[in-house]
Structures are given as structure tokens and as C-alpha cells.
Amino acid sequence: MLLSVKKSWESDEIGALILLPTRELAQQVSEVVEKFTKDNGLTKFTMISGPKKVDKDVKDFQGQGGNILIATPGRLESIIGKIPEIKKQFKTLEVLVLDECDRFIDLGFQKSVSEILPVLPKQRRTGLFSATQAKEIEEMVKFGLRNPIHLNVTDTALMSSSTTGKTENGEEIGIASPDTLTNHYTIVPADQKLCALVEFIRSKPDAKILVFFSSCACVEYFSNVLKHVLKKRKLFAVYGKKKFTREKEIAAFKKAAKSVMFSTDMLARGIDIEDIDWVIQFDIPRQSSWFLHRSGRTARAGKQGDSLLLLTPQQEAYIQFLEKYEKVTLDKAKIPTLTVLKAEDLRKKIVKMATNDRAYLVDGTAAFISFIRAYSKHDCKVVCTMKELDIVGHAHAYGLLRMPRLMETKDRDLTEFKRSDVDTSAIKFQDHAREKRRLAEREKKSRELEAGANRKDDDEEGEGEETKKPMKGRKRSAKEIKEEQAKKKKMDKERARENQELESDTKLLQKFKRGRLTRSELNNLV
């Protein structure tokens, strides 16, 4: 398309901009674009968040330029702020592409996109690409496209007839679920869920497997725990906190046969990894439409693939929910080697790990809390309610020593939880640096509490005889009681006024720090 506009492009002329929601997807697209620009005189430049600093990107772009710009919204927004002249370079823009555009809403990039679009020429070709029919895409169409045309692209040769649905307007659409994909589900008690995952992975020794969890904390915790359980398998983990090592993990997983990857939903879209044999969904997705995105990581390019969804008895109605609203058919499967004894042995092993290293205690609790919070926000609360969730069973599967206090579980009966007798405050981190920080924080907290207690004692001593409680045995007169009540009321009013002033001053200080007030305005108001 760019070469049809003109045969030769200067290095400082931007002809196409491709925006992508994640650095991994941007890197993947960059590698593909590289193949197309090799022999036709066009150049490309990639701007993504990561170890490379914004200033380095600015310097490189000013020196190299690029006819095709591939970027994540946040990084491009930062660079536009640092290179005002880039706005002139965008005048030659012919094509704007937003891939996986519904993810821009999920990841909170609306502001960045809104800042970028006014810089671009209005006369351009714009393409919004997504595998879903999300309502949010219609909002993006409104401010991103002029004279929009909707195209529905499917490979009818590979599409399953059972996976068709309808849009809100009644238009029939195809959902990307190929005939070569077989979806399975299994029902296991909550306390056996982790053991079920372990036993299933062990039953597929030659398979490349991708496992989805509901949160970063869950991926981090279970990947660390299961490396001591699945010692014969190569395990990888990808989640948001590992921003700067994700590319290496994905690249290593692509190359490693018979390996297992633990991931959040960041790998459910866009990233192309060949030869995945099985996709396992340990937790139900936050949105039911993501089920197809997850399972679609296998059975790619006409190859055979399978997916397995792990459910508890309380979640069995989710199968009918998927069949009705996502038009997905699932076959029931069993894990023959799963037993109550194996699940209990695994729980005890994790408890022992947490007893010997505080990292497992802390990370396990964080993972459990994140799972509960994620579960409370999914979109099928009618069939998978928080009220019916087996809290105790899941806590046992996580190998918790203590049940954390949560708003979501405060009215639940948790008496069946197997609480450990170990004094958790005495458990140390095996990581010496982490343990040193913990002890320092504990010492600091202890000093603060002691200082607070001393201040309280001083306050009580300074109140004077008239404010002290009367000694027992002495009957106070009505006048004394009335005077004491009046003084107390006056003191309460004074404290309330002081607290109100303090709160007001704090808010003004916050406005000053955010740049919403000048120093002179602050001084006048305080």
C-alpha cells in the first residue's frame, strides 16, 4: 500500500503506524514486518516499553527514522511529548492499524490513544482488528474511524459449525474455534484442584502445555511451587510483573519441547506459539468470551489441539453457560490417577515448604487473595457465585497455613480449614536480603508502636486532675457530672475541628504536589 502511494520514502517520513497493546505482540509484529521490508527499500522502527529507556528510543528514532512505526500506546505517547517535530513526520501517514483493539480498553490505553490520534492526519486508512465483537470496539470506531466498514473474516474450511453466534443486531458471526480443536472439562473437588493439574501434566509427558491462571500472583506462586513437584519438566512463567524477562521466557518456551508454560491472560491473545498440544484453564476466565481466546492458543494452522477446563462441583453449570452464550461444546474428561491421598500429600508438601521459607507463606497468601478477588469480578456470577465457592477447599489446594481475612469471605463458615500450629511470625525468608528487609520493617513498626504508646501516656498525664476519672467510692454531684460532660463535649469539638483542618491541609498539599496549585496559592489557602 505504501509503495503504491510512492516508490521511494525518505527515512524521516512515517507512512504507517501499527499500535499494539503489549510489548510481546509488538515485538512479534516487528519480526514479521522485518521480512516484508527487507528488499523493498522501506524501513521500520519499533517503540515498546521495557528495559530500553524512552530517551534511548528518542535518540535512535531521530538518527534512524522509520517508514513503518510499530509501537505500544504508552511508549509512543511519551515519545510524542519528547519529540515535538515527530508531528510533522506523521503528516505523510497513510495507514493506521490498531491490532487487538479491544485490549486497549482492557489495559486502560484509551487516554494514550486519545492523545495520539489528534497528531495523525484525518485523511488516512485506519484498520481496527479484533477477534471479538466487544461493545467497547464500537466506542473506538466512533473516534478512530471515518466512514467505517465492518468486515468479518473467517476460515470456513477450518471453522466448526457449532461455534457460530449472533451480534446484537442479529448478524451471524463466526467465532474462531477450529474443527481441529477439542475442548474438554473435568470436575474435581476444590482441595484436589492443584493435584489434578499436576497429575494431568504428568499424564502427558511428551506434550507442550500452556496453563492459564487468573492473576499474576497465582502464576508466580504456582510456578515456584510446582518446580519442586514437576522436576522432570521444563517450566516457564509469564505474567505482568516479569515485564523485562517475558520475551526471554516466551522465546525459550517456543524452543523447548515437552515444556509447560504458566501464564495470565496476556498470552491468550495475539502471541503466536506453534506446536502447543494442550491448553489448561486452571481458573475460569474473567470474561466467558476469553475461553475461546485461551483454548485457541492450540490447534493453530490446521494442527490438532486440545484444551482442558478445571472446574469444581459448584461450577458445573458453567458448562451450560459456555454452550449457550459462547456456542462451545465441551467433552467430559477424567483424571484417573487423581486421588484424595495424593491431594493431601501435595498440600502437606506445600505447607512444609511454607514452614521452611517465608516466601511461600507470603506468596501463597497473596495468590489466594488475588484468586478470590478475580473470582468476585468474573462475568457469569449467575452460575458461578461467590457464595457457593468452596473457600476452604481452595485454601487447602493453595497449601495455606493461615486463612487470610477478606471482605469476600467474612460471612462464610471456615471452621473446616486445616490451620497450621506453626508460629508464622517465626518463619524466616531463605533469601537473606528479603529476611533482612523484613526484620528492619518489623523493628521500625515496633518503634512506631512504642512511640505511639508513650505519646498516649504523656497525653493522659497532661490532662490534669479535672479530666481524670473520679475515684471509686466517691459519689459525684450533678454539677460535677454536668461540668465534666461539657468539658468532654468541648474537647471532642476541638479534636474534630483539628482533624478537619488537618484533612483539608493534606488535600491542599496533594493538589500542590500534583501541580494543580502553585506555591503562592498554597500559602494563601493554608
From TrEMBL:
Keyword Nucleus: no
Domain Helicase ATP-binding: from-to ranges: 1-151
Keyword list, A-Z: ATP-binding, Helicase, Hydrolase, Nucleotide-binding, RNA-binding
Keyword Hydrolase: yes
UniProt biased composition (Basic and acidic residues): 431-457, 478-508
Enzyme kind, highest EC tier: hydrolase
Domains as described in the record: The Q motif is unique to and characteristic of the DEAD box family of RNA helicases and controls ATP binding and hydrolysis.
Protein name, UniProt field: ATP-dependent RNA helicase
UniProt-listed Pfam families: CTE_SPB4 (PF13959), DEAD (PF00270), Helicase_C (PF00271)
SMART domains per UniProt: DEXDc, DUF4217, HELICc
Catalytic activity: ATP + H2O = ADP + phosphate + H(+)
Annotated SUPFAM superfamilies: P-loop containing nucleoside triphosphate hydrolases (SSF52540)
Family the UniProt entry places it in: Belongs to the DEAD box helicase family.
Region Disordered, residue ranges: 431-526
Entry function: RNA helicase.
InterPro entries: DEAD/DEAH_box_helicase_dom, Helicase_ATP-bd, Helicase_C-like, P-loop_NTPase, SPB4-like_CTE
Provenance organism: Steinernema carpocapsae
PANTHER family: RNA HELICASE (PTHR24031)
